[in-house]
Amino acid sequence: MPSLPLPSDPTAAAKANTTLPEPVAVPGREGTPHTQPDAEGVRLGGLAGAGPRDMPTGNRFWRRLRAERKALLGLIFVGLLAVIALIGPTIAPYDPEADDFDLFAAPSRNHPMGTDSFGRDLFSRMIVGTRVSFTIGVSAALVSMVVGSLLGLAAGYYGRWVDSVVMRAMDLLWAFPVIILTVGMVAIFGAGVRNVVIAIALAYVQNFARVVRAEVLTLREADFTQAARALGASDSRIMFRHILPNAAAPIIVQATFAVGLGILAESGLSFLGLGVDVSTPTWGNALFESREFIRQAWWISVFPGLAIASTVLALNLFGDGLRDALDVRSVGEA
Q1: What is the distance of C-alpha 98 from the center of its chain?
Q2: DSSP 176-191
Q3: b/e for 288-301, b at 16 or more Cβ within 10 A?
């Protein structure tokens, strides 16, 4: 019997006649479809589940910062002091070095903060001294931030003997109280603005090194760091292009605290007679000159002390609010 032709399978025929779609290039990606872009062209932040920390945007950051009343108050106060530091000599009512007034004159309309033991207007000296105290505090914070961040970055990224050497040196600095360390440095290298800045920066460099090292230990194992390493990125590119920017938030917050600590350290050194030149109007020198006349003229020590305490408190309040505003764990809030 002749064999009958089998009916064709409609499913198989449909599969045979089906044409696969052409590969479509993804917009915004470099290279041809099904090819891996190079290390320069890849957007590591765009990889699903492998991106860097989701930092708050500008509008969200300011909205969250404004929600912190104490941080906003601290920012306004620090901003006002920064303006005074810039234009202080031009708005001082009297020459800070002029001793043409009565000695130990009590606060009045003409002299809001009274006069000191040389007959100089204390209000004018406080305004002019804001520039020197702020300059020392900011400069010491910048120096300690740069040096400490580099040391912490190297220790956290390379680990092993680099981590051991750096952190043991930081432990050695940590073992000495700040005032003893700064006094020893100034005693060795001498007084002056530059030496005071170096001494204060050296005392607080370990704070930045520890903060940055802790961040790098986490970020070096993140997916976007591993992706950059797999694409052939160099160590310097990974550290300064991918890791350090993602550790910027705690560094900025620590810097705000360091400015206040620098002003406080300068005041302590000047009070001990180891700060800048005694004739230079600073808040610390004002305290130094008032130590023998506290009972005779209370205003000579009260107003400089209030200025130092208020500035350090404002910087701490601003730093706390800045830390909350930059906190990536609550970036989805507000």
Answers
A1: 38
A2: S-HHHHHHHHHHHH-S
A3: bbbeebeeebebbb
* pTM to 2 decimal places: 0.76
Q: Which domains does the chain have, with CATH numbers?
A: 58-87+129-330 (1.10.3720.10)
**Concatenated DSSP letters for 238-299?**
IIIIIIHHHTHHHHHHHHHHHHHHHHHHHHHHHHTT-SS-TTS--HHHHHHHHTT-TTT-TH
Could you tell me which residues come within 8 angstroms of residue 251 by beta carbon, excluding any fewer than 6 positions away? 145, 149, 208, 211, 212
Structure tokens at 183: 């006094």
pLDDT, tens only, 283-302: 988 888 888 888 888 899 89
Residue whose entry in the numeric block shows the structure tokens 């306004």: 76
Helix axes 122-158, 69-91, angle to 10 degrees: 130
- Which of the residue ranges 16-25, 96-105, 321-330 would you say has the lowest mean pLDDT? 16-25
Axis crossing angle, helix 193-219 with helix 178-189, rounded to the nearest 10: 130
Asked whether residue 333 carries a pLDDT value surpassing 50, the answer given is no
